[in-house]
Fold each of these.
Amino acid sequence: MPKRIKRTFFSRSVHEVAPDLIGATLLFASLGGRIVEVEAYHHTDPAAHSFRGETARNAVMFGPPGYAYVYRSYGMHWCLNFVCEPKGSASAVLIRALEPTAGIATMRRRRGVADERLLCSGPGRLCQALGIIGKHNGLPLEEAPFAIFARKGPVEVVAGPRIGITKAAEKPWRYGLKGSRFLSKPFSPAAIVPHRPPR
DNA sequence: TGCCCGATTAACT
DNA sequence: GTTAATCGGGCAA
């Protein structure tokens, strides 16, 4: 039985938590899979929602770590983040892609596609597949409907530039599982940068 | 109040 | 490769 991730896991730098999430299993109401792609957003980062201070939308980011920050993107999609670091630092990890392992039939129905590679490969897609919407903003990650399990063994993590942003776009704060077929986009070999190897 | 734009996706050519 | 869909946040006025 895999080990469930506790709140203290998120009480670290977002740049430590993000690569450590690669290979972990995310379930929401028993649906989900293995996390293969995330991005780190630090409050000193111009691309982070929290960069310009607390507002009604980003208030959860300014609370304690270990909670879900869910926001609407481009007026039509939902995106899921894990709040990290000590309370007030307003940093979070965006969950960008899963390798589906649980509840695939339900996720196929919700997404309207059969191809497993299109179920959870993208921040908006995985929220649609798992049924995550705005009302889940602020929920604790330690409690149902969330269940997050640490990876069992070492994995190969690659890092590169983030996707879909214009500010601080050069920062290599996107992390992925090397060679995964379930990434929202492949990592450009030329842009991959070294980082601390996972335990 | 009005305007611009975005941590996206899918359907095009 | 390009672009439409669609809407709340943030900021100027």
Amino acid sequence: MSLETIQGSLKKRGVRVTRQRQILLDLLDQSGQHLDAEGLFQLAKERDPKLNRVTVYRTLKLLKQGGLVDELDLMHFTGDQHFYDTRLKQEHAHVICLRCGKVEEFFGEPLQQLRKRIETHFGFQVVLARTEVGGFCSHCQVLRQQERDAARQRQIEAAAAATNSRSNNVRARARRAG
Amino acid sequence: MSLETIQGSLKKRGVRVTRQRQILLDLLDQSGQHLDAEGLFQLAKERDPKLNRVTVYRTLKLLKQGGLVDELDLMHFTGDQHFYDTRLKQEHAHVICLRCGKVEEFFGEPLQQLRKRIETHFGFQVVLARTEVGGFCSHCQVLRQQERDAARQRQIEAAAAATNSRSNNVRARARRAG
DNA sequence: GTTAGTGCAAACCTTTTGCAGCTCT
DNA sequence: AGAGCTGCAAAAGGTTTGCACTAAC
């Protein structure tokens, strides 16, 4: 699937591919990232400073309705906005690290298998599927362990300090009592 | 897993299980539906008219952070609010009909398989996974076909009417021309 | 020349925050 | 007493809508 396919699909529906929509489609296609409405708007403004935020929302809605983009939430890691993926790639799951926010994409047949199973199990006609997985990437697993170790260390030191201060108090009382 | 497990988990974290929270937990547990904050609030109001909407949001946030409920979007079929599922059942996918809004739950190993594959593929530690599938339930597939047939029929009739009116015009012109 | 699309401002809906008072322990 | 929790009001964040003007077919 290509950008031209998307544009063709729009024209077929009597939707006009205006200058603004062209800009937004290009950005969605090029930018490797997962953009939300605001991010897309910021990039679009660089190409056309007059382009309005509302146009971005309207275009995204249009593309979503036409099944040309997928709407993601990325586990609400950054907030409650929606992110968008053109459907130019194969179906994939999004894997979000809950510590650093990195997003990986997982392709592979377990996804197709799941889809097929749901279709046969319910006699359901699947139109779109979305899998989002939250957890910790290999890098952050290590960092979390270090953080936990450091926290435990601080606790031990705090406990030791408390003990010292208690015994100091005892000594001080003993002195006052003479 | 049971409601008591959830309550225990909260207490262990130094979280108080107050009257309000008890009400909300009961409702989440009992109601078979997928409730959103507003729906939960409406039900809670019946048991305690003083209970505030904000308390609902705060409790849901707490439960989410503790990993005691899953947050769903149900493909934004009804809007952008979030829905909540206690994690008392086995992991499952949500299957949403885009015509009637019915939500089915799919259990079964393709889900576990997908999770395992992602863990091994990325060395990722999965904490929570969410699969939402949109499409048409078997019932609505039939209805959609009927709707399409009816639309085609109307088109044919409209075309026929247009032809009639054109030939009527021709006849009228002929009459006027005498 | 019609129909669709745009920009602007204002509204909307869901969710969060600040704060004073209340409640468990 | 002290930490945690609640209600209220107000704000925030993201998204949609009404309307007059403009651009594409």
